[in-house]
Write a structure and sequence with these properties.
This protein is an alpha/beta fold. The chain is built from 15 helices and 15 strands. The strands form four sheets. The protein has an eight-stranded parallel barrel, surrounded by five helices. It is globular. Bound molecules: 6-O-phosphono-beta-D-galactopyranose. The site of 6-O-phosphono-beta-D-galactopyranose has 16 residues, from loops.
Length: about 475
């Protein structure tokens, strides 16, 4: 079987992780420009000031993507390039950069798939309460509208937010992302609600503009499975799915929050401040959302914590996705299992978990259109006689594409696959050491680009539309 003709083979990046040019052409300062420079916050103090200089080298990068046969490029817009202070004046130079990038993609027939928010927030908004303040929600709606009007004639695929769970968990519970708060439970839930509301406002605006493209959101997809058949662990896995998946997907796809979580929040006094009007807004826009983007790296293997364990403060080292952390409410923890396979960074490799998770999504949300907006292997790539022999990455993507194929065969409505990442880039907490790209960046040689083995492999997969998978 070949992948259907309308299925997009793509790859992804995010502004802060690739662009660099952090203070050029009128760009405003962002939360990450500041946070990454606080000692101890990032791996070996790395930051995105230069990143892989995509801002200046986008033409070369897009040409390489075209050579690879890439059908679609998922990238994010840096809000602070468009509106430097978050909700004030528009910076024409920022508009110009993304116009150029979009046009460069279109020149080669590469479909731009644009994320509006991949974590870099203009500093004035960050300093005014970040996502706990509805000022940020409203500012986002305005920024989204500016982008729709500037780019919507050519961009027909929009993602409002990337992985709300990650920037909220790491920002408000673990202290590992801005604003760097720890165990701020109330703020955490408030921030998630304000993001869902911002998403709804943007979706509504997009539909009003009648640009006839599609808009959705991207969430982490980390389905939870019990470590065994024991009742308390099965309970824990279900509990984890409610907090880690349904809390994030339900307001978008069903237009309401899961009652199971709402009840617990009410008991604990953690219910976000919201109005009837806001809740109605979620309800009214749920049907307008066109798709759900899923970023899948690994499933969660879950075990019930016995007794009255308390949630603990989690350091940066424990915030990099490796299992072993307790849930914020002390109900369960994620664990590593002996019979599973893990990457060098302790992330489980499981295409089966991917497929089972997709089935779970279909069961709960029906026929919703899905894109895999990220999936890939973080590794230290072997270099043999000057060639980057990233065979483990090829294996990883191969297995996961096979799962996608099986899922499509089962009637799951999957319309595209975006490998993370198109090019080696800055990992938020792992610096440049953890590589994901099809294109290698030589940090010892003026950031020169080089094709990896996986580049040629992915090109072949795209050319043959995955027939051999
Ligand atoms: C996702 C993010 C990406 C990217 C990826 C890999 O959560 O959306 O931006 O960072 O994870 O993560 P890491 O670099 O930590 O391995």
């Amino acid at each position: 079987m070949k992948f259907p003709k309308d299925f997009l083979f793509g790859a992804a990046s995010a502004s802060y992780q690739v662009e660099g040019a952090w203070n050029e052409d009128g760009k405003g300062v962002t939360n990450w420009d500041i946070f990454s420079k606080i000692p101890g916050k990032t791996f070996e103090g790395t930051n995105g000031d230069v990143a892989v200089d995509h801002y200046h080298r986008y033409k070369e990068d897009v040409r390489l993507m075209a050579e690879m046969g890439l059908e679609s490029y998922r990238f994010s817009i840096s809000w602070a390039r468009i509106i430097p202070d978050g909700d004030g004046e528009i910076n024409e130079k920022g508009i110009e950069f993304y116009n150029n990038l979009i046009d460069e993609c279109l020149k080669y027939g590469i479909v731009p798939f644009v994320t509006l928010y991949h974590w870099d927030l203009p500093l004035p908004l960050e300093e005014d309460g970040s996502w706990t303040n509805k000022r940020t929600t409203n500012a986002f709606a305005k920024y989204a509208e500016v982008c729709f009007k500037a780019f919507g004639d050519r961009v027909k695929h929009w993602i409002t937010f990337n992985e709300t769970i990650v920037f909220c968990t790491l920002g408000y519970l673990n202290g590992a992302h801005p604003p760097g708060l720890v165990n701020a439970h109330k703020e955490y839930f408030q921030a998630t609600h304000n993001v869902f509301l911002a998403h709804a406002l943007a979706v509504k605006k997009y539909k009003e503009l009648k640009q006839y493209g599609e808009i959705g959101i991207t969430h982490v997809f980390s389905p939870a499975f019990s470590v065994d058949g024991q009742e308390d662990n099965l309970f824990a896995a279900n509990h984890a799915n409610y907090y880690q998946t349904y809390w994030y997907y339900d307001p978008i796809l069903k237009g309401e929050y899961p009652q199971y979580v709402l009840d617990a929040l009410q008991k604990k006094g953690l219910t976000p401040d919201w109005t009837e009007e806001e809740l109605r807004m979620l309800k009214d826009t749920a049907g307008l959302n066109d798709f759900m983007g899923l970023n899948y790296y690994q499933p969660a293997r879950v075990e019930k914590i016995q007794g009255t364990a308390k949630s603990v403060e989690i350091s940066r080292d424990n915030s990099t996705g490796r299992p072993g952390n307790p849930s914020f409410d002390g109900v369960y923890k994620t664990v590593m299992m002996e019979d599973k396979v893990y990457t060098k960074w302790g992330w489980e490799i499981s295409a089966e978990g991917f497929l089972d998770g997709l089935r779970m999504i279909k069961e709960r949300y029906g026929d919703v259109k899905l894109y895999i907006t990220e999936n890939g292997l973080g590794d230290e790539d072997p270099v043999i006689e000057d060639e980057i022999m990233d065979v483990p990455r090829i294996k990883y993507i191969e297995e996961h594409l096979k799962a996608v194929k099986t899922a499509i065969g089962e009637g799951i409505n999957l319309k595209g696959y975006y490998a993370w990442s198109v090019i080696d880039l800055l990992s938020w907490l792992n610096g440049y050491k953890k590589q994901y790209g099809f294109i290698y960046v030589d940090h010892k040689n003026n950031l020169a680009r080089k094709k990896k083995l996986s580049f040629h492999w992915y090109k072949h997969i795209i050319e043959t539309r995955g027939e051999e998978l």
